[in-house]
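Lab notebook, design round three. We kept the backbone fixed and only want residue identities now. Task for the bench partner: fill in a sequence for the structure below.
Input structure tokens:
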């Protein structure tokens, strides 16, 4: 085990050193990917502590080559092992890492027995948002003084094409993008899986005779085209729009977000509704512009 780890570490450092690039042009690098499976470099199935100690050695070797590199450690998303895995990694490797990588997927099987599978699917985005906040609190407690944030570098649906490449897939993506926005103090970046083909979840699909963007592609493009510069505090004042939990799905009715563009005094608002067929009237009080 030790010999394998040392050889892998040596290979990773050599590969990092031999890249033809100016210093620090590679801003972030991941130490392993995912926490299960012996085929995963760096994140072996021997437990979080083993991985964390190996990550510390990787960090020392890689920063000897590039002192300014930001390192992403393997984290665990929403699930039964979430706190145990993330806690162990933060306690051991917290002083040398900059991010936790999180993967969050929703499967059709996990929602199949719900009274309303579609509503259950849409509610998962709110659960993931709460999970990112929870992990952020664990980071603050176990790695005090370290500005460690989460990078959700894999997320999507394990559903058939009829769902993923439909408005349902787009609405789910929008709800999760909204969650990333609302949890922006804890999540620095995200990346849907995949960008091109790969599997049904690829948001750009190509073949011999055509190429097209899926509804998820256009939902994400819409967010990226209206980033603004500052996130604004939002409140839901109407009694029907308060963030109350619906008993059947435990998902808030409305999740508003807003951003402003300081140079143009422009405000973008996003409000993802939960119930299909409902109408939302919005009254906006824009920030004062000088």
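Proposed sequence:
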């Amino acid at each position: 085990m030790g010999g394998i780890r040392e050889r892998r570490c040596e290979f990773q450092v050599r590969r990092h050193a031999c890249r033809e690039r100016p210093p620090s042009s590679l801003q972030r690098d991941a130490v392993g990917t995912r926490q299960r499976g012996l085929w995963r470099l760096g994140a072996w199935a021997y437990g979080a502590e083993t991985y964390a100690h190996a990550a510390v050695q990787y960090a020392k070797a890689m920063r000897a080559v590039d002192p300014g590199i930001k390192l992403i450690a393997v984290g665990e998303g929403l699930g039964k092992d979430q706190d145990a895995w993330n806690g162990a990694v933060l306690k051991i490797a917290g002083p040398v890492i900059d991010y936790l990588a999180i993967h969050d997927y929703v499967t059709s099987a996990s929602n199949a027995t719900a009274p309303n599978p579609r509503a259950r699917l849409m509610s998962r985005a709110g659960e993931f948002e709460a999970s990112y906040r929870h992990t952020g609190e664990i980071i603050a407690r176990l790695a005090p003084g370290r500005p460690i944030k989460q990078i959700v570098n894999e997320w999507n649906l394990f559903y058939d094409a009829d769902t993923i490449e439909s408005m349902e897939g787009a609405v789910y993506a929008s709800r999760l993008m909204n969650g990333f926005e609302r949890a922006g103090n804890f999540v620095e970046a995200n990346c849907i899986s995949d960008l091109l083909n790969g599997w049904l979840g690829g948001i750009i699909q190509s073949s011999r005779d055509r190429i097209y963007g899926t509804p998820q592609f256009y939902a994400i493009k819409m967010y990226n085209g209206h980033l603004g510069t500052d996130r604004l505090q939002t409140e839901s004042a109407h009694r029907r729009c308060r963030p109350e939990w619906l008993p059947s799905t435990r998902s808030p009715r409305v999740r508003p977000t807003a951003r402003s563009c300081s140079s143009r005094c422009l405000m973008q608002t996003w409000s993802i509704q939960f119930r299909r067929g409902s109408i939302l009237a919005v009254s906006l009080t824009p920030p004062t512009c000088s």
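Keep this in mind before ordering anything: The longest helix spans residues 117-142.
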